[in-house]
Amino acid sequence: MSSRDSSRYAKFLFSFPSLRVIIFINVFLEILISIFLSITCPILRSIPQALILVFLPIPYSLIIHKSFIRNDKILTFRRLLALQLIQEAIYTILIFIGYLTNILFHKEPCFTIFFSISLGTTLSSFISILVMLGFLRKNTVKVLAISLIYVFTQSFRWLVLGQMIFKTWIFMMLSIIISFFASVFFLFFLNHRLKGKIPIKPLSIFHAYLEYHLNKNPESFEKILEDMSEKRDLELSLLLLDTEKEVDLSIFGLSVHFGPFGTVGSSQLPSRLIKLIENPSLRVLLLRNLSNHSLNLPSWREVEKLRLKMVEALSSAKQLGECNASVVQKETEGYSVTIISICSYCIVLLSCPGYSVEDLPPEWVPNISSLISKYGFTPFIITDAHNSIDSSSWRTLDPDYGRFVNILEEVLKSLRKTSEKKVIIGFDRIHPSVLPNDEIGPGGISTIVLNLEGENHALIVIDGNNMVKGLRNYLVDHLKKSLNLSTLEIVTTDTHLLTGIRKAKKGYFPIGFKTDKELLLKTCIESIKNAISSLSACSIKVWIGKVEDIRVTGGVFNILESFVKQCSKMINILMVLTTLLTFLLSLILF
Description:
Blueprint: H1 11-15, H2 19-40, H3 42-46, H4 57-68, H5 77-105, H6 109-135, H7 140-166, H8 170-194, H9 202-215, H10 219-227, E1 230-243, E2 248-254, H11 271-277, E3 282-288, H12 300-316, E4 318-322, E5 324-332, E6 335-342, E7 345-351, H13 365-374, E8 378-384, H14 401-417, E9 421-430, E10 445-452, E11 455-462, H15 471-483, E12 487-492, H16 517-533, E13 536-552, H17 556-589
Parallel strand pairs: 2-3, 7-8, 11-12
Antiparallel strand pairs: 1-2, 1-13, 4-13, 5-6, 5-9, 6-7, 9-10, 9-13, 10-11
Helix pairs in contact: 2-5, 4-5, 4-7, 5-6, 6-7, 6-8, 6-17, 7-8, 8-17, 9-10, 15-16
């Protein structure tokens, strides 16, 4: 749910191929199991018809699905067979290990094989019950009953074969009982961890998430986030640049975080807002104020409130007249501060290109705003450039607030000494098809160029979640030299539309992780040249206000993120403990 969402814990069930392929692999694994059993257990060679039992799980899965979960839109028959495939894979691996143990230590063949099977029964039953609890939107007692029937039918073959070979079925039954009570304990753990913290049942979170992830319907999950969210008044600002050409440019400053992930809440911003607000005569550039996941909007309903306020701002912005500007940038010891002052309204860009950094904290905003006001300027937006993360280790540094403030004061002093000049402005947006769309979002690459008496100053905004460390400096150095730019900063939108990619280690690809840097450089050059070619004089309108009573996730996101991590840890612990308990009991019984 953070950088990487909880889909990783069941990605096999989410993305496995067609039903036909699943059935084929299931049957193939069952054939392997029957071969191992016939080789290692002489008694089964005398009654080979008993091996038919090995092939019963698929018919049993069909019966269970038709009888109890036929109309379930999440746990479909394909996914139920994918769950069975996981079980068959566990049995195959453990039986093979038992077979090798028999060869290496010269143990009694059937003993080692069925010892391994008892461990497999515990693991597969525990996994199956957890999957049923997470997938089925029914009463918990009913789900536990269905789960128990399912794991019993899946293990029926081992109960019968155990009775035939060892004259007892108790060790296999104990495996089922152990896994069942481990699952019940896990339920108590869920309720205890979230008791008093959220107003809903913990399993509802998993149900709603799976409804979103599997059926592409975020409604249930967004409703949960709404119910747990808090209302705030969020700052919103607008600079509307009326150009002499037919297309105007609006620069919005949003105090919103573009999360939590995928298409949930405000994750699709800014690209979706741009699409909704732009028209042939108006272009939109969105900049994000310092924010973190506490400022996620929980649903598209809240995003719509924001959109309506933005449209209102466009129609009620105050005319200031001719547009004048100045730009100052200072970079030292891996920290960079850039201020674009347009008619004394300051766009502040904070960057840590020398370090690996995540979100700069929103708690900095009041003090930085006060400092800007102290020097006679009006804070418009304080933007986290979000342009440097170490994608090899993913370790991050807590940025030094004091160092930022010192650099900021130096920039403000220089800015106060620099008179604003008449500016002509150009804008361009490219949606490069040659760059990976799981790294750069639908907002593409946006570029604004401010020409001050012949000097070009550029800001590039890339729709993505962070950049690999070093890429920002590479692009800035080459672009400034090749295009003779006086200043340049590159920021990312921090969109979480691309977060939740299962094949990515942290759930997302920062810009430059897959993209060839020379190809990205070429695209940025094209965008800057296009912006320069569209330079136009302009007048300016301003609107600064608030979006009142809008819901944000607040501390709930951190609760859910911690909850998912704790669940993952507890599942791993229970798997180890149940396996160990089965191991000890099997030694005693065998």
